[in-house]
Amino acid sequence: MDTVWALVIPGSLSAFNCILLKNFFKQLPEGLVEAAKIDGANDILILCKIVLPLSLPILATLALWSVVNHWNEWFNALLYINDRGKYVLQIMIRELQTTVAAITEGGAGVDASVAPPSEAIVAASNLFAILPIILVYPFMQKYFVSGLTVGGIKG
Fold this sequence. Notes:
mainly alpha
């Protein structure tokens, strides 16, 4: 409770991501690994020089999916974080939006002396929440290229 680890550890390993990685590694041509072994490469060198460079598209995809999933997650933070100083951005935006909705609808229990945040503030906070993902995606997009193994071996 009230630690970042309560948010990180449960989502650190996804069965879906493991299945995707396993299937991607199964489709890599065995001829590349065999050729490297014939050339005298050990397992570490094969991993670093052949398997990892060919795996950049799937690793980039899974990394982007994981980052977006964790960035947008608010429910676990709502359950496990009690200290307002440790709230994630999405919890704060949710509170801001529910406050605006309560004030707009004239909900009971809302202090009328407090100036309500305008819809522009809510929209700006939503933009602020999606901005990091929008900025990261163009740099990750170059890894979303299929067919890296074309021409690697002759059929």
